[in-house]
Design a protein that fits this description.
Order of helices and strands: EHHEHEHEHEEEEHEHEEHEHEHEHEEEH
Structural class: alpha/beta
Shape: elongated
Mean pLDDT: 88
Largest sheet: 6 strands, mixed
Number of helices: 12
Strand content: 25-35%
Radius of gyration: 28 Å
């Protein structure tokens, strides 16, 4: 079954609020094996709403609208759905009684405009909303089933889980679900991941394979539709094995794991392990990630049992000038900085991020310049070089995650 979500409200188009409802419903539909092929956002304009709903009913078996069923003049969903399905709006006495009772229980005076919420398209299925005054309703049209939900998130979520999902199971006999395995990839860009596993993406059917890029990380999603988790895992497993073989050590985790989680597990194997960091352009993000990785980090002199300890940070990028006489090249300087901060703090591991940004560049993402990261241990230093060094959050996040990944590889040795 193919579904479509239509989020209704001019405030969504104006950017006054973010449409989190559609994302939440998409996850719930996937859990039930429902294919979601389209999501549309439309303002409170009856003609544009009618066009969006009519088009959805032509191409999707299930259409879910969200928003526009309240008491105000710009709540137009019920009228538009009635027009799209060729029905009249009729008063449902039971819904009106429920709305009146809800106002009485709360001790509020019910204004006349609330009566509008008891009108639904003729022949539709009323759905009581115990968390608000706007009832939901379901229109079973020959072209598609249209389910109209309120836009208030907690009202919508309750109705979706307690009314919509049971209805869909009864109506469509849903027996499949969609399951995903997400491989987390570090120190490779999106195009490099595609170059290695692109054939898995191009040839995928069930399971399907897709890539999603974040600053400093790429997710490889393997998604299967099956009647059980065990069946889905059986479909996913051979594709996952091939992907891991191709991506090798760049895969640091899966599903909900973060790089911080993985590094934390490695660091905390030694209850007395200590880490010291120097940061230039990242300005403390590496230290923040280390804190997330190891749990509560303690100041120098207070060693926590079972925790990696952050011993010190050498502040701003200009501090690198102290060590410039030690190395002329950026990678060598990063190694010297990692060794210096390790020695200064008498730590087991020293971490350094040194960047040389392009003073003329103003971009926020992948800005021109050079970034050097290094991790120093008793066995020596390992470093990486990257062709970006922007002051924007995407570049700083990317640098910090690349640094954390190099720390992961060092700790695995």
């Amino acid at each position: 079954m193919n579904a479509e979500i239509i989020a209704i409200g001019s405030e969504l188009l104006l950017g006054q609020i973010v449409d989190t409802n559609s994302a939440w419903m998409a996850q719930r539909l996937a859990n039930q094996g429902v294919n979601l092929f389209y999501k549309t956002v439309v303002g409170d304009n009856p003609d544009r709403m009618l066009s969006a709903i009519d088009r959805a009913m032509e191409r999707s078996a299930l259409v879910i609208t969200c928003g526009g069923i309240g008491p105000t003049q710009d709540d137009l969903t019920r009228e538009v759905v009635a027009r799209a399905s060729g029905r009249e709006l009729v008063l449902d006495p039971e819904l009106l009684a429920q709305i009146e009772e809800r106002f009485r229980r709360r001790g509020f005076i019910m204004t006349g405009n609330n009566n509008r919420q008891a009108y639904i398209p003729a022949g539709s299925i009323p759905v009581t909303n115990p968390n608000g005054t706007a009832p939901s309703f379901i229109v079973e049209d020959p072209r598609a089933v249209v389910i109209c939900l309120p836009g208030v998130p907690f009202e919508m979520k309750w109705l979706f889980d307690n009314e919509v999902i049971p209805y869909l199971k009864r109506k469509f006999g849903l027996s499949e679900a969609i399951y995903s395995r997400v491989l987390k990839v570090a120190d490779l860009g999106e195009s490099s991941v595609d170059d290695l596993v692109g054939h898995l993406i191009a040839n995928s059917q069930n399971p399907t394979v897709g890539v999603l890029a974040h600053p400093g990380q790429v997710d490889l999603r393997i998604t299967a539709k099956a009647t059980s988790r065990e069946e889905a895992e059986g479909l996913i497993a051979p594709v996952e094995r091939e992907a891991r073989d191709l991506l090798m050590h760049h895969v640091f985790g899966s599903d909900d794991q973060t790089l911080q989680d993985v590094v934390g597990e490695l660091l905390n194997r030694d209850p007395k392990l200590t880490v010291a960091s120097y940061e230039g352009l990242t300005g403390g993000i590496v230290a923040q990630y280390l804190q997330e990785a190891a749990g509560p980090l303690f100041l120098e002199g207070t060693i926590g049992s079972g925790r990696a300890v952050l011993l010190g940070i050498l502040g701003a990028n200009g501090a690198a000038a102290r060590y410039e006489e030690l190395a002329q090249d950026g990678a060598g300087l990063a190694d010297q900085l990692a060794a210096a901060v390790r020695a200064h703090a008498d730590a087991d591991l020293g971490v350094a991020v040194h960047a040389v940004p392009d003073a003329q560049a103003a971009t926020e993402n992948l800005s021109s310049g050079r970034t050097y990261v290094s991790v120093c241990s008793s066995r020596g230093a390992s470093h990486r070089e990257y062709n970006f060094a922007g002051p924007g959050l995407p570049d700083r996040t990317r640098s910090a995650l690349y640094t954390l990944n190099l720390l992961r590889l060092t700790a695995m040795r």
